[in-house]
Structure formats: structure tokens, C-alpha cells
Amino acid sequence: MKANGMIALAVACIFSLTVAAQQPTTPSDGSKPGARKEFKHEMKERLTAKKRAGFMAVEMELTDAQRDKLQTLFEKQDKQRDEHMAEVKKLKEQEMAKAETIRKANDAELEKILGPEKFQQFKAKQAERREKFNKMRERRFGNKDGMRFNRDHSPRPMNNESAPQPQK
User: Fold this and answer.
1) Complete DSSP assignment for 31-94
2) How far, CA to CA in Å, does 85 sit from each of 29, 81, 88, 152, 168?
3) What would the pLDDT profile of 84-128 be if each residue is shown by its tens digit?
4) In whole angstroms, what separates CA 79 from the centre of its chain?
5) Contact present, 62 and 70 (Cβ < 8 Å)
6) What is the sign of the dihedral through the CA atoms of 108, 120, 139 and 163?
7) How far is CA 88 from the centre of its chain?
8) pLDDT at 139
9) Which residues neighbour 26 within 8 Å (Cβ) at sequence distance 6 or greater?
């Protein structure tokens, strides 16, 4: 009898642990349960060339001359990276402008074919599909405001019509 009681107690403990393990937990950072950490955009401060050279000099036991040369190299690399990023940003803006021009031309041609009334119906259905897609994205990724993130981690709207102009 005692053995059956112990077995029943063990089964009850295992069952309760299994049920408790399946309960969703809320993360301590206040995000939704199941929200993926890859989608959290945090701006991390980049170390200066001087600090990177200093850390490497301590870690590798380098001389002051080697540290100074490293610092110069890191500064050169930072400058190259910044120039490259500026060029990429400029190209991206040009591509976005080109895509917008093409979209407007296509819309004008479509409006000629469909007529103004049917074109407005088409645009309404297109907006409805976009809204449905955004709701799906919100459910799937927890992205409440339908925003994407720029490289500088500032949000921007999904549709280009109401996108704010970048500040320079």
C-alpha cells in the first residue's frame, strides 16, 4: 500500500511539473512572451579607435609604438567604414526614389486602363490587403505599430507615402 502511495505521489509531481513547464512566462523586460531577441533593436555605442587599441595593447602586451600604429589603423578603418556607409545610404536613397518614380508611373498607367473609379477600388483593396498583412505581422512578431527600423534604429512607417524625410 505504501508503495502505491509513493508511486501516485511521484506521478502527481511529474504531472504538475509538466503542466507548469508548459505555462508561458512573461519576460522580465516587459516584452511579449515568445518575442524573439533578434528583433529587439538596441543602439550599442561603438568603442573609439583609441579605446580599441588600448584594449588590444593590454591583451596582447604591445609596446606603445605598436599601440599607436594600431590606433592609426583603427582610425583609418573607421573612416573607410563611415565613407562606405554614407555611399550605401546614398545609393539606397537613389534606389528608393527610382522605385517610387516607377510605382507612380505604373499607377498612372493602371489608372488609364481601369478608369478613375475602378482604380480607386483597386487602391482600396490594396490598402485592405496591406492592413491585413500588417495585422499578421503584429501577431507574428509583436510589432504593434507596423513599423520597420532604419539602420539608426529609428522607426519608419511601412508605406512610403507617409514616410518622414530623413533629417540631415
Assistant:
1) PPTT--GGG---PPPPPPHHHHHHHHHHHHT--HHHHHHHHHHHHHHHHHHHHHHHHHHHHHHH
2) 32, 6, 5, 12, 15
3) 999 999 999 999 999 999 999 999 999 999 999 999 999 999 999
4) 25
5) yes
6) positive
7) 18
8) 86
9) 33
Q: What pLDDT sits at residue 48?
A: 93
CA distance 55 to 67: 9
> Counting runs of H as helices and runs of E as strands, what totals does the chain give?
4, 2
Using a cut of 0.85, tell me whether the model's pTM lies above it.
Answer: no
Please give the single-letter amino acid code of residue 67.
Answer: R
What amino acid occupies position 99?
A: A
> Dihedral, CA atoms, 40, 43, 48, 49, nearest 10 degrees?
50
Beta-carbon-side half-sphere exposure of residue 78 (alpha carbons within 13 Å)? 14
Dig out the grid coordinates for 164 from the structure: 518622414
Nearest to 67 by CA among 58, 75, 76: 58
The C-alpha cell of 104 is what? Answer: 507612380
